[in-house]
Write a structure and sequence with these properties.
- This protein has 333 residues and is α/β, with parallel strands linked by helices.
- The chain is built from 12 helices and 12 strands.
- The protein has one domain: TIM Barrel (Alpha-Beta Barrel), CATH 3.20.20.70.
- The protein has helices spanning 2-7, 23-28, 69-78, 106-117, 148-165, 179-189, 210-215, 236-248, 262-271, 282-293, 299-313, 323-332; strands spanning 39-46, 53-54, 62-64, 83-89, 122-127, 141-142, 145-146, 169-172, 196-203, 252-256, 276-280, 317-320.
- Helix 4 (106-117) packs parallel to helix 5 (148-165), helix 5 (148-165) packs across helix 6 (179-189) and helix 8 packs across helix 9 (262-271).
- It starts with a helix and ends with a helix.
- The chain binds ligand PBG and zinc ion.
- The site of zinc ion has 5 residues, from loops.
């Protein structure tokens, strides 16, 4: 009886392993791929230093003086990477963060140096105020809360100042309501219709930003960012934020952080038609570097697998501190 049952099993006609049998067939049927063109490399430019200083919690990442910007951007361009995004550490901070719209501010200087050295690379400026305010919040304070609409006026000035310096894209990251519409109108009124807006549309109040706050010296001096960045528990709200930014005229949407929010990347991708970026943030980088330094993981293998995961989840663009290493690994294979 038992033998008869086995004999009567239909032969397996469907065998997924057929397509895994050789490297050539696996390559032909691979669904997702990585290219150096997918990447944007973050750069920290510090007005108060004359030599690069490594960020202790981000091995391989340094704050650099503006005099090093041209060489750094050249290295990134030579690696085949599409763009750089600048974060600035000004020598002076104040309550409203006016260094952000100083036409001779640190990011404006970096933009000019980058465009002069590499006119073809896409130069992006993170557009926020936490690095410029003495209290470390992402806008002007009214009492202990960030005044949304007063901050919008400053965001316009900051975006226009970056555009005058020659930036290709501004990337508002402060999660202010209406920030995309305000910046779009500010840029258009100043004659910068072609300046692209990559909006940090869905940004969560995350523990994964820890090392960045050391790198960019922008920890809030009191409280936290929970009244403007999103609650990690929320999914529907992410779609709502993304659709609002589409309506306001965003050109590219971003989800941030990346690893803990892959479901959100997929859902925003399916809900909108815009190119999607994902930010593989400082804490995600630091964890990989720490494990790799202990030889607990194979860094190259783990990083490439993670990047592929972002693409598979729906990201078109990846902002990552690993970008230069990834570009080298891709060219090796
Ligand atoms: C500033 C900003 C932050 C990051 C990018 N832009 C920090 C924050 O919101 O506290 C985080 C980037 C990273 O962790 O790599 N608005
Ligand atoms: Zn900010």
């Amino acid at each position: 009886m038992e033998l008869e049952n086995i004999m009567s099993l239909p032969s397996l006609t469907i065998r997924p392993r057929r397509l895994r049998q050789s490297p050539a067939i696996r390559r032909m049927t691979s669904e997702t791929s990585l290219s150096t063109a997918d990447f944007i490399y973050p750069i920290f430019v510090d007005e108060s230093i004359s030599e690069a200083v490594e960020v202790s919690s981000m091995p391989g990442v340094s704050r650099i003086p503006v005099s090093d910007v041209a060489a750094m951007v050249k290295k990134v361009e030579d690696a085949g990477i599409s763009g750089v995004i600048f974060f600035g550490l000004p020598s002076e901070k104040n309550a409203n963060g006016s260094a952000g719209w100083d036409d001779d501010g640190i990011v404006q200087q970096a933009i000019r140096a980058a465009k002069e050295a590499c006119p073809n690379i896409c130069v992006i400026a993170d557009t926020c105020f936490c690095e410029y305010t003495d209290h470390g919040h992402c806008g002007v304070l009214h009492g202990e809360t960030v005044d949304n609409d007063a901050t919008l006026e400053n965001l316009k000035k900051e975006a226009v100042s970056y555009a005058k310096a020659g930036v290709d894209m501004v990337a508002p990251s402060g999660m202010m309501d209406g920030m995309v519409a305000a910046i779009r109108s500010g840029l258009d009124d100043a004659g910068f219709q072609d300046t692209v807006i990559m909006s940090y549309a869905v940004k969560y109040a995350s523990g994964y930003f820890g090392p960045f706050r050391e790198a960019a010296d922008c920890s809030p001096s009191f409280g936290d960012r929970a009244s403007y960045q999103m609650d990690p528990a929320n999914r529907r709200e992410a779609i709502r934020e993304a659709l609002l930014d589409v309506d306001e005229g965003a050109d590219i949407l971003m989800v941030k952080p990346a690893l803990a929010y892959m479901d959100i990347v997929r859902e925003v991708k399916d809900a909108t038609q815009l190119p999607m970026a994902v930010y593989n943030v400082s804490g995600e980088y630091a964890m990989v570097k720490a494990a790799a330094a202990n030889a607990w993981i194979d860094e190259k293998r783990v990083v490439l697998e993670t990047m592929l995961g972002f693409k598979r989840a729906g990201a078109d663009l990846i902002l990552s501190y690993h970008a230069v290493d990834v570009a080298r690994w891709l060219s090796e294979d």
